[in-house]
């Protein structure tokens, strides 16, 4: 079962591009982006091998030592990770711009997994999968639709009470969440006779539905502390739920710290407890004392210390910068000598915190050989430099450009390109900084490798022009210039069609409602002879631009039932355009008992991401116990539970986006992969 869920995790990552075969995690996956299958912890044969870890002695209920960084992780919740020297399977192909998460191949009716299509680790879809949330931000579109409906109603048409307004609104009300969704999830959590993946998904969903409240904390405590009395998937979900619900207090802190310090608890449960503290941004001294105990070299798996460093970054306390810099400079923590992977996560933590004092020590690592560390350092540039003074920014932009020229690793180089886009795209960037970044990125776009560098350069240029929620607008001439350059290149449709999808997404981020750009994207979307991932990217771009003329083409592509991934991408596009017809189509699919579990799962997750209240009834019907559920596979019900949580979460951006954004996905451990899959 868990293999199937893992496969649908790609589905959940649907917000990146079409997943070749999306996969859902045991805990209920989340949409990871461009094209479904984006395996979080995968190692390229050219990557350095991590040092072997002592196997340790698993305790009852424990799942064995953690998966070494970048080691194959065919089943996110798998109990026995392969040894670090195991041959590396071919990485799976990612799905579309809104596609699924980490994963492998496609599950066949007999339960076997067909080999996935090969995909280069330099593919832009990996980056998009982890970073698309703030760009797509579907829920804000639904919220805007609600505001528009509520303010445009006329009493002459709808009556003095305005009841018609309420029926038109798309976002579920607080009352609806508490009366319809929460009871269904509570009932599912209480049913110990159902598959643990369904209960695990319901626990995560319950945390989302009750965000900021203490209503279900007692339930999370009881399940999270159950140990051998609960399935480990369910226990881990309850522990992570404490971080997702967002309520921070002394009782939760003490509970999580006790779990972390208990060596009898499975390593992944302890990792999830660490990440929960990070999600809560609990910067109490007791938390950091606990973290340092996990960094003293006593752990037998890399997962726990790596997650401890991730937690430091998630908390974001600048008071931790001196210690992190000291560890990085000395290459050790106490008596423990640090390897390349651990240094990489120290750099990542410094990047997440974003304090300017960390810029020089981070930049210094680019002169060293550690590949994991260099990749993280290139990412950290884009996180730290925007916080520095303009003079410092100018100095380090030149250094970054020089490092890019000499860098031989394409992944590291691409991370640096994205950092230039983030730096040039900051709302208050000086004209000099913006001009310098644009010049470097334009050169990379025109002259870099068509399959690898150009897609990242296009995305970086898109980031420069992307407005998001920023109040200050970017120069109009910049947007017009970038739109024209990328449009002319895309129009030729030369080279790898999957790679061209990045150019389409970039046009969406630039957001120029230019008739020529819209016409080109519609043409690509309508062309059934083109690569589905490119068509899906064009659909998402049209949604980002917000041109209503594209609605007809989007809805038409949405009905192409032979391609599930394209349907998801077009659903996302329709959600961005606040087109209710897409939701109607997707709800209809949910009622189709002949649809495969993969189709039903992807549709449910798409509806959850869009956040339309009309999906509640059909989802509840699939989730509810009794005779009805006999026609729905466990996998479908697990994903529906997850989707109900997404739909009811009042926060615009999923809480774990703080972890996935700008993550070094080429350096990974199994616990982190699992967490990313869940969220």
Oligomer: single chain
Q: Helical amount among residues, as a percent range?
A: 55-70%
Distance between the termini: 19 Å
Largest sheet, spatial ordering of strands: 1-2
Category from helices, strands and their pairing: mainly alpha
User: Which parts are unreliable, with pLDDT below 50 for 5 consecutive residues or more?
Assistant: 1-41, 51-94, 100-116, 150-169
In short:
With 679 residues, the chain is mainly alpha-helical. The chain has helices spanning 2-7, 9-12, 124-131, 133-136, 138-152, 155-158, 163-168, 174-190, 196-209, 217-224, 232-245, 250-261, 267-279, 285-293, 303-315, 321-330, 340-353, 359-364, 371-384, 390-406, 410-424, 431-447, 453-465, 476-491, 497-510, 515-526, 532-545, 551-558, 564-576, 580-590, 597-610, 616-623, 634-648, 657-660, 670-678; strands spanning 106-107, 113-114, 332-333, 336-337.
Description:
By secondary structure, the protein is mainly α. It has a domain at 1-51 and 58-137. The protein has 35 helices and four strands. The chain has helices at residues 2-7, 9-12, 124-131, 133-136, 138-152, 155-158, 163-168, 174-190, 196-209, 217-224, 232-245, 250-261, 267-279, 285-293, 303-315, 321-330, 340-353, 359-364, 371-384, 390-406, 410-424, 431-447, 453-465, 476-491, 497-510, 515-526, 532-545, 551-558, 564-576, 580-590, 597-610, 616-623, 634-648, 657-660, 670-678; strands at residues 106-107, 113-114, 332-333, 336-337. The strands form two sheets. Strands 1-2 form a two-stranded antiparallel sheet. Strand 3 (332-333) and strand 4 (336-337) form a beta hairpin. Helix 8 packs antiparallel against helix 33 (634-648), helix 12 runs antiparallel to helix 13 (267-279) and helix 16 runs antiparallel to helix 17. The radius of gyration is 23 Å and the shape is globular. The two termini are 19 Å apart.
């Amino acid at each position: 079962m868990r293999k199937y869920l893992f496969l649908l995790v790609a589905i959940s990552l649907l917000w990146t591009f079409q997943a070749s075969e999306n996969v859902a995690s045991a805990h209920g996956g989340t949409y990871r982006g461009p094209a479904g299958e984006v395996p979080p912890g995968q190692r390229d044969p050219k990557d350095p091998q991590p040092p072997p870890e002592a196997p340790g002695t698993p305790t009852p209920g424990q799942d064995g030592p953690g998966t070494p960084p970048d080691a194959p992780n065919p089943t996110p919740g798998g109990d026995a990770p392969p040894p670090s020297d195991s041959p590396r399977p071919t990485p799976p192909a990612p799905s579309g711009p809104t596609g699924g998460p980490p994963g492998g191949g496609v599950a066949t009716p007999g339960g076997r997994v067909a080999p996935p299509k090969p995909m280069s680790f330099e593919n832009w879809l990996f980056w998009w999968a982890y970073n698309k949330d703030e760009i797509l931000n579907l829920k804000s579109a639904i919220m805007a639709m609600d505001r528009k409906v509520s303010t445009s109603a006329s009493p002459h048409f709808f009556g003095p009470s305005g009841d018609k307004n309420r029926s038109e609104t798309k976002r579920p009300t607080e009352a609806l969440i508490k009366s319809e969704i929460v009871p269904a999830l509570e009932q599912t959590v209480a049913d110990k006779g159902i598959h643990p993946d369904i209960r695990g998904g319901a626990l995560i969903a319950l945390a989302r539905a009750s965000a900021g409240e203490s209503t279900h904390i007692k339930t999370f405590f009881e399940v999270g502390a159950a140990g051998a009395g609960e399935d480990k998937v369910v226990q881990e979900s309850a522990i992570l739920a404490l971080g997702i619900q967002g309520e921070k207090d002394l009782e939760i802190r003490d509970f999580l710290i006790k779990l972390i310090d208990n060596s009898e608890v499975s390593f992944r449960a302890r990792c999830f407890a660490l990440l929960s503290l990070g999600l809560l941004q609990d910067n109490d001294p007791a938390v950091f004392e606990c973290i340092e105990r996990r960094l003293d070299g006593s752990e037998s798996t890399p997962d726990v210390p790596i997650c401890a460093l991730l937690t430091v970054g998630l908390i974001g306390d600048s008071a931790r910068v001196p210690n992190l810099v000291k560890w990085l400079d000395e290459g050790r923590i106490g008596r423990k000598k640090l390897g390349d992977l651990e240094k990489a996560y120290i750099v990542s933590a410094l990047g997440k915190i974003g304090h300017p004092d960390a810029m020089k020590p981070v930049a210094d690592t680019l002169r060293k050989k550690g590949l994991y560390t260099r990749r993280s350092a290139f990412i950290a540039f884009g996180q730290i430099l925007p916080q520095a003074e303009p003079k410092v920014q100018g100095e380090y932009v030149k250094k970054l450009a020089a490092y890019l020229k000499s860098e031989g690793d394409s992944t590291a180089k691409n991370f640096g390109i994205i950092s230039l886009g983030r730096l040039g795209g900051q709302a208050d960037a000086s004209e000099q900084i913006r001009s310098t970044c644009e010049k470097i990125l334009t050169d990379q776009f025109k002259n870099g490798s068509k399959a690898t560098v150009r897609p990242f350069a296009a995305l970086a240029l898109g980031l420069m022009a992307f407005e998001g929620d920023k109040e200050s607008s970017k120069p109009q001439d910049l947007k017009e210039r970038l739109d024209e350059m990328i449009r002319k290149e895309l129009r030729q449709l030369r080279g790898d069609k999957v790679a061209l999808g990045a150019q389409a997404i970039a046009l969406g981020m630039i957001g120029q409602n230019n008739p020529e750009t819209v016409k080109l994207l519609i043409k690509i979307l309508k062309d059934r002879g083109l690569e589905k991932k490119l068509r899906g990217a064009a659909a998402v771009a049209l949604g980002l631009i917000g041109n209503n003329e594209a609605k007809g083409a989007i809805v038409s592509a949405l009905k192409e039932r032979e391609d599930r991934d394209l349907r998801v991408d077009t659903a996302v596009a329709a959600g961005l355009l606040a087109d209710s017809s897409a939701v109607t189509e997707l709800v209809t699919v949910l009622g189709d008992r002949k649809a495969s579990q993969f189709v039903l799962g992807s549709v449910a997750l798409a509806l959850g991401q869009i956040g339309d209240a009309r999906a509640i009834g059909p989802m509840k019907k699939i989730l509810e116990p009794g005779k009805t559920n006999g026609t729905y596979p466990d996998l479908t019900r697990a994903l529906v539970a997850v989707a109900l949580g997404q739909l009811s979460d009042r926060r615009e951006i999923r809480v774990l986006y703080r972890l996935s954004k700008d993550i070094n996905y080429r350096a990974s451990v199994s616990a982190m992969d699992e967490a990313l899959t869940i969220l």
